[in-house]
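Fig. S4 source data, part A: sequence.
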Amino acid sequence: MVKRLHKWAGIISALWLFILFFTGLLLNHENNCHSLDFLWDIQIPKKFFSDFSIKKNKNRDITSYKIFKDNIFIGSLTGFYVNDKKILDKRVYKIEPYREKNKETYETLFLATDDGIYVYKDKKVYIFLLKGKNITSISVNYPFIYAVEDKKNIYKIDLNKNKIEKINLDLKPADNIKINRFVRDYHYGRGLFVNPYSAYLNDLFSVFFIFTIISGTILFFKKKVKKNIIKRISYKIHITKLNYLFFLFILLLITTGLLINRPYLYKDITRIEVPTSIFPPIYHNPEKDIWDIDFDGKNLRIGTRFGVYKGYLLETAGFAYKLRRIEDNLYISGMGGPNKVLKNGEWEILRIKKHMPIDFIKMNGKIKAISKKDIKLKRDRLPLYTFLLSFHDASIFGEGFLILNDIFSILSIFIILSGIYLLFPNFKPNTGHN
């Protein structure tokens, strides 16, 4: 009975699970592996998207947003845009204005890119420093520039002395972390080891499961053929003892995806705090997972998944997704937590209730948080990454199809558990009738 249910559940869900794991395999490298630049370079016409998927995912590549007079500057993983026109074809992680004594001027902009630090001035863009390095964050406060390479190496640049030095840090991790933080980190390929090794492990698990799906499908449709080399190879792949090891991680991938898809159903469980000491190595090395930095002229602050560090100590807790300075105040975009502001030396929770804003701007004397959905970038095509994401979350078929991932995730959990049960030593499968 278990064997029959396992086979039929597998064949019913095979196509959708293949799509889920194949797209997940590629989406895993949004920022983790720069050999997959084609995800941003290949552009797909909007006509191949549903209206719902465009509304939901169209600006996933955008990282920064600034306004100066009548000009709108947008940083994106597909390039740097000025008034909807692309003028630099690089991965732009952050736009930083020239700043001296915490006074900004937007006539000169510094760009953190995958090919070093660029400068935009007088309607022209040119390379400035650190050519060839993947600069994921930057903070400017003359005469110093602080830059982060690959989310882990910090460089201090003294423009007066024309000197660049690398800073070594040893940040103390927080004592506890919420389960929902690990749920998202693991699913997005950053929950085990230092970037990019967690992503590589997720790749390995995904490729293994894809081969399992393919071999199971071959066995199902060739069950009446007794002697067939493809069938024998498929059978050996399908029942390999690696199932015992890999399926535990694959089961975790599927379960975390299910939790992310419907967070409100499990919020009481995922908000439980547990000791950091029981989590994988990446949680013990905050200095290897830097999301953003800020330099106010005296103090360097570092944004991590634990929060913001001032020097070596955690100053305020909560995932610091983006750090954005506007004059004397520092704004935090929270991921899975509230947005905050450092004002007059004190941290406050912002009244701005916006999920993961990518930037903060000052308009008419008021601070406005900018989310990806707020941005109107005119373009006829969207990156391949967005197209794959729309398949991965089923939004490409329309809003009513989002439940498909729930259904097939539950089916896949049953397939894995029943498959492990069928691999027990006391189970003797008939290889001629599989």
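Fig. S4 source data, part B ends here. The longest strand covers residues 103-113.
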